[in-house]
Amino acid sequence: MRLSVEHVTRYHYDAPVRYALQQARLTAKDRPGQQRVDHWTVEVEGGETQLHYTDHHGNGVDLIAVDSGASELVIRCRGEVELLTFDGIIGAHRGAMPLWTFLRPTSLTRAGRQVRALTSALGRDFASDIERAHALSALILQRLPYKIGVTDAETNAEQALAGEGGVCQDHAHIFIAAMRHLGHPARYVSGYLMMNDRTQQDATHAWAEAHFDHIGWIGFDVSNGHSPDQRYIRLATGFDYQNAAPVRGLRYGAAQENLVVQLQVQQ
User: For residues 131-153, b (16+ Cβ closer than 10 Å) or e, as one string?
Assistant: First the structure.
């Protein structure tokens, strides 16, 4: 399946910006057997791309400096990607980061009382570790229904589980924390999902991947209850959201920002 993407991230500042720097992980990359990028561009208005580099997770990163005195920054991505995989299996581990590093907890994926109780509730009656992972995914969605506006980018897995709902980022963090607690390397994935019922979207998507002996990495989209298929474009991976966020940055000065995202993903 071939998908086209048009993604606009617009920051509006209520006062001229003294200094701001953004890291954008918005470049889809070729991944053998998974996705082939026909073309992809990242354009900036109100700032300048000072550097493009590949980080330690293999993600393409644009370092964007906001123009001094600017009142708006616009990051516009366009591209077409052909999706080659249909079953969520990514395969063998590659890259500079050793596999064991994906077992380490982070501040967003630490397995405390809530996560440990969740894994205990799974029981042990499973034919395989992969079956158990799917059961875990279903249990997370049952315990934490999809609900916008009750968590934010700083909410960790324990805090999310103690609440009344969460979004794809929270589901991914809980799944990662639980899988690491169960002894499986796990990582966070950011990207795009073509929705079956609409073209216009207001956010990118996130899911998780876990590693299994003799198979490798397998994706789990907890929020939608299945493994990623030919509707998913992978942008970035990392230990958690902080390593794979589409855009993150810092700003000096008193200006407050308003963020608007416009996104179209279609066949």
Answer: ebbbebbebbbeebeeeeeebee
Q: Which CATH class is domain 89-244?
A: alpha beta
pTM, to two decimals: 0.95
- CATH 2.60.40.2250 for domain 2-84+247-266, yes or no, is yes
Alpha-carbon distance of 158 to 165, in angstroms, equals 12
Burial grade of 252 (CB within 10 A; 0-12, 13-18, 19 or more) = exposed
- The string of pLDDT tens digits covering residues 136-191 is 999 999 999 999 999 999 999 999 999 999 999 999 999 999 999 999 999 999 99
Do the beta carbons of residue 77 and residue 1 sit within 8 Å?
Answer: no
Helix (H) or strand (E) holding 143: helix 129-143
The domain limits of the chain are: 2-84+247-266, 89-244
Residue 67: DSSP 8-state: P
